[in-house]
Design brief:
Length: 65
């Protein structure tokens, strides 16, 4: 490009030399926290596990008889 170009884009400059350059500093890392467990999730899991174990015991008894 020539020295007298009328481009709409400004010359690249470091952030600290730009207007409001301090606002463009490095962003902090977001804090990641574990998601909350839905209400009753533990109870539902235990009931489901109980049903699976009960079904396995019934299948085992039927297979052995």
């Amino acid at each position: 490009m020539s020295e007298h170009s009328t481009s709409a884009t400004p010359e690249p400059r470091p952030r600290w030399e730009r207007e409001n350059g301090r606002d463009w500093g490095q962003t902090s890392e977001p804090v990641q926290e574990p998601a909350d467990t839905p209400r009753g999730a533990k109870g539902a899991f235990l009931i489901g596990l109980g049903v699976i174990v009960l079904a396995a015991v019934i299948v085992l008894i039927v297979a052995l008889v």
